Amino acid sequence: MLVPLSWLKKYVKIDIPVDEFVRRMIMSGTAVEGYEDCGAEIKNVVVGRLTEIVPHPNSDHLSICQVDVGQEAPIQIVTGANNMAVGDYVPVALHDSYLPGGVHIKKGKLRGEPSNGMMCSGEELGVPADVYPSNTDHGLLILKGEQIPGADIKPVLGLDDVIIDFDILANRPDCLSVLGLAHEAAVAAGNPVVEPNYEYATHGGSIDDEVRVRVDDPDLCKRYCAAVIRDIKIEPSPLWMRQALHKAGVRPINNIVDITNYVMIEMGQPMHAFNLDAVRGRQIIVRRAKKDEEMMTLDSKDRKLTPNMLVIADAEGATGLAGIMGGEESEITESTQVVMFESACFDGANIRQSGRSLGMRTEAQGHFERGVNVRLCKRALQRALALVDELGAGKVVDGIIDIYPNEEPVPVVQADVKYVQTLMGIDVPAEKMAKILEQLDIKTIVKGDQLICESPVWRQDIKVGADIAEEVLRIYGYDHIPSTLMKGKTMGGHNSAHQLRDAKLRALLCGMGAFEAITYSFISPKWYDALRLCEGDPLRLSAKLLNPLGEDYSVMRTTLIPSMLDTLSTNINRGNAGAALFEIGKQFLPKSLPLEELPEERPALCIGLYGENATFYTIKGMVEALLTRFGVRNVSWKRSDAPYLHPGRSAEVYAGDQLLGLLGEVHPDVAENFKFKRRAYVAELNLNALDACETGVGDAKDMPKFPAVQRDFAFVMKEEVPVGDVMRIMEKSAGALCEEVKLFDIYRGVPIAKGEKSVAMSIALRAADHTLGEEEITRVTDKIIAAVSTEFCAQLRS
Amino acid sequence: MQEKLNEIRQSVRAKLDAAAGSASIEDIRVSVLGRKGELTALLKGMGKLSPEERPIVGQKVNALRAEIEGWLERKSAELAEKEKEQRLAAETLDISIPGEAVAMGNEHPLSATLEKIISIFTGMGFSVAEGPEVELDKYNFELLNLPKNHPARDAQDTFYFNENILLRTHTSPVQARTMLSQKPPIRIICPGRVYRADEVDATHSPVFSQCEGLVIDEGITMGDLKGTLDTFARELYGEGISTRFRPSFFPFTEPSAEVDVTCAACKGKGCRICKGTGWIEILGAGMVNPNVLEMCGIDPTKYTGFAFGIGIERVTNLKYNVPDMRLLFENDLRFLSQFGKGRV
After folding, report:
1. For B145-203, what is each residue's pLDDT tens digit?
2. DSSP secondary structure string, A692-739?
3. Which of B100, B254, B303 to mutate to test binding with chain A, by most A CBs within 10 Å of its CB?
């Protein structure tokens, strides 16, 4: 919220430097985004009075002016403007002066005539036409009223001010007003608040003869206050009001509208002004909209209403959206003669919903959403009427309508002293607390070990003892909170099994040369097409966001593969020669669609790699190493039919019957869909399944006491025989003596026939209790040879 | 006889002095001490001597044998040493050639930061609690004092699946779930991914991560919160770092505070990173609101507690001076691999 310091100073004396004031406000709980000196850039610009204007002898559009700038004699200035007359007061930038934007003015000559400075337009000084209605775009800014030549221009234009940008916390809607902030400023500056004037004169008549008001839906309108003003004289509001509004970021319009805006900023109460002659039947009904009811709002837009929206209706239909925007019909115009001011308290949640569904967002709406103080509606109306009186904008009719069926009492909170002290961690004595609370106008009585606290009328946020603790603490000073260690039971902290598993995976994969990636959990549904998933593929069943940032981020991923492919693509297309990457993330698997309950969130590991030496066996090796490190037993591999993988170079991995995941080379069409052209490999593992199959290391075994023997075999077999199967048969044939079977070469080519391969393997045999004899070894190797030969039609190479 | 012995002694000495390799040492040994060696021959010829002479000569021969064996041993050790030196000299390598590349990956900087934070808090007796990322409105907002249509929900632009199911905007729902299922004392941290509908730019990401903390016990004070966070800040950034609390507001805590830590770059002196203030805002915290305790079934007259929330991206970006949030999610190897080059 932008607040000119000058406005704040109307209610409280602030006699400390701005930076110190801001620091005290922040440390006592009012956040400040920043502050700005509005005339900081303007230097050496003064009021001048024109004493003579003559045409320039060498120009048909320049004039030579003599200007009294408070010096011994007038100075000469040449100008191109023509809207001035002798006797006018204008801003004069003297020799060696500065204007906003760093413009430096120096004396010089214009077509041979000396010019000792420049007379300025409003634009050049950063003063908009809204604040100076007489100010035209190109002409000089003609100052109204009597001025003193040579006086600093900044106070004259209200530029000797600082604008503070307060960041108002959600629990302090009272501070969405200058007066609310003044109460905080009063504590910060140590000076009392001086309330503005709420007194005004009335001019007879009776409001009941002017308008009738009815509230049909009191659940959405807790209070409705109204007053009527006759003999309205629409004109610009006075300069001080226009300057104040402008600096607070609101455009001045006319006296009546400006008064409503001024009171909203001053007191936080949104006000609305109706042209009462345009209110049909002179009747105001606060009710929910009827089905299919329509109205045109002030911004000339037709609005279709629904029955949950609150409207201000007249005898015939809606004429305003309660708390959001008035209707065009009853808008204040130049010719308005009778005005009704509305100062009401509407339900914030309802206003919020209506505004959202209509796509509207107004200042008034913001106030209602955050909480308008029902107790202050009438006072704000009185303030507006006092301003009408002060500005001479019209004649206030006797009486105020105040429909307030359930009067809300000022809340009283009882707080236990010890509890407050515990929360704060400081044993501030009860009397000291009471003193602090009194500074905040919270009437406090100390009764034994209890504090009885009554909020001031403008505060709505003090409801429980913890609120009292905060009030005391923020004034006592957060700096005084001691740094203590928790007492009570000591607890053994432990990490979660998930975090430990993920940390282990990270350590292993980093050791294998892979880098961890983190990608978004929501993806584009188009990526499922890019994966070549068929129409009914279960991976397509993903939870869809109602309000995504865009289609590209609209569904919760059911697989990490597309994100990994995108990451690989980024690295490939940026020229990184090779990469191994992994991500640990969640797959979101809905139990039904649309979502009725929370989806299963399945942790998954995705690995992706490409590069000169990367092959199918590289990624398979990585996965095998991980499985070994997790003690997964009975691992087997089956061909995968995943549509995004190379049909001949992809596999599913199982532990017993449990599917753990899959891996393989990326299908070339899929690679192309992800905008890269080289071979790449991906794997995805279900980490819940991995957890389920993880086993411990078990008992440590003694070192073998007897030597192992190694025997090498080379079998010639058909190309399509799976080597893994051969190795398994060898293992099985060797039985208990088998220690390890290793593949060491696969050879194709002369003298091996086409369509066949020679597979060289070695087996290590060992008995636990004796040294193997030659005879025993031969028995085993014969068995191996026989089994492999019969099972796979393979021949032992001699 | 003595002459003969002297002769052998001198000849062996001369041969040894001339010997140039361990092979020739062996030849010398054989020629003197071998089965057919000169000294062996002398011993064999002892039978011809008188019984009186025999022990004397035997002694002399044996003494010479021992002496020669000593020489042989020393000489062969000397030669072996020399040969080793020659071999080592011949094996000299160009040490300026780079070593064989070992493939080394590293963790994502966000994981590294999070792991560090987790280890600090588990060391203080906190346990890790986790919960779903797709959450019910009830746990994400309602139980945390943020009823439907509460304006403070605006501060957390939320992704919805429907009226009741959303992407959690903080890890606080894990706190709510823990309070509902566990009796005090509670001392947990809740790390994880969270989501807010912020457009992607240099300082915003719709997906980010947090680590929140919650302590509930009898007599927990705001001083304990400060003590805990002071300890955390020191562990994370080093000695000389402390925290500063500023009053703030969060619906689920009361009193609430924004917490600044001493700028680690300038140690509080004021620099570009902390915009001259000496402080950097890194987290929000406060005393758990009694309404929240009550809604979660904990007696607020018996128990008090504190909660805090740390943004992992913010801590990471400040620690490593990462200029643009988007770099964290692009996963360009040239960015990621920087975090493998030193202590993280």
Report:
1. 998 877 777 767 899 999 999 999 999 999 999 999 999 999 999 999 999 998 899 88
2. HH-----SPPPPPSS--EEEEEEEEEETTS-HHHHHHHHHHHHGGGEE
3. B254
Asked if B29 and B72 touch (Cβ cutoff 8 Å), the reply is yes
Residues of B in contact with A170 (CB under 8 A): 151-152, 155, 249, 251
Co-location of B44 and B16 in the same domain: yes
Domain containing B71: what range? 2-90
Domain final residue pick, B31, B56, B90? B90
Task: Kindly list the residues from chain B whose CB atom is less than 8 angstroms away from the CB atom of residue A423.
Answer: 221-222, 255, 287, 304
Asked if A494 lies within 8 A of B127 by C-beta distance, the reply is yes
Instruction: Give B304's contacts in chain A (Cβ within 8 Å).
Output: 419, 422-423
For residue A308, count other CB atoms closer than 10 A to its CB: 12
DSSP annotation of A215 reads E
Can you tell me the distance from the alpha carbon of A690 to that of A654, in angstroms, rounded to the nearest whole number? Answer: 10
For A404, the 3-state DSSP assignment is coil
The CATH code that applies to domain A2-38+162-189 is 3.30.56.10
Provide the terminal-to-terminal Cα distance of chain B, rounded to the nearest Å: 83
Q: Does 2.40.50.140 match the CATH number of domain A43-156?
A: yes
pLDDT tens digits, one per residue of A247-302: 999 999 999 999 999 999 999 999 999 999 999 999 999 999 999 999 999 999 99
Say if the Cβ atoms of B162 and A601 lie within 8 Å.
Answer: no
Residue A508, token pair as written in the block: 């292993």
Does residue B70 lie in a domain region? Answer: yes
Question: Does residue B8 sit in the same domain as residue B39?
Answer: yes
For residue A391, name the pLDDT band (cuts at 50, 70, 90).
very high
On chain A, the residues whose CB falls within 8 A of the CB of B108 are 515-518
Task: Give the domain ranges of chain A.
Answer: 2-38+162-189, 43-156, 207-403, 412-479, 497-693, 709-796
Amino acid, res. A566? D
**Does A510 sit within 8 Å of B255, measured CB to CB?**
no
Options 3.30.1330.60, 3.30.56.10, 2.40.30.20, 2.40.10.220; CATH of A412-479 = 3.30.56.10
Interface list for B 246-285 with A (CB within 8 A): 246-249, 251, 254-258
CA dist A684 and A681 (Å) reads 11
pLDDT at B19: 83
Does domain A709-796 correspond to CATH entry 3.30.70.380? yes
- For residue B32, give how far its alpha carbon lies from the nearest alpha carbon of chain A (Å): 43
Least confident piece of the model among A304-313, B45-54, B283-292: B45-54
User: Which residues 1-60 of chain B have a CB within 8 Å of chain A?
Assistant: none
Q: Please, which pLDDT band fits residue A138 given cuts at 50, 70 and 90?
A: low
Q: Is the pTM of this model over 0.80?
A: yes
A425: chain B residues, CB-CB within 8 Å = 221-226
**Å between B110 CA and nearest CA of chain A:** 9
pLDDT-derived band of residue B272, with 50, 70 and 90 as boundaries?
A: confident
B258 shares a domain with B157:
yes
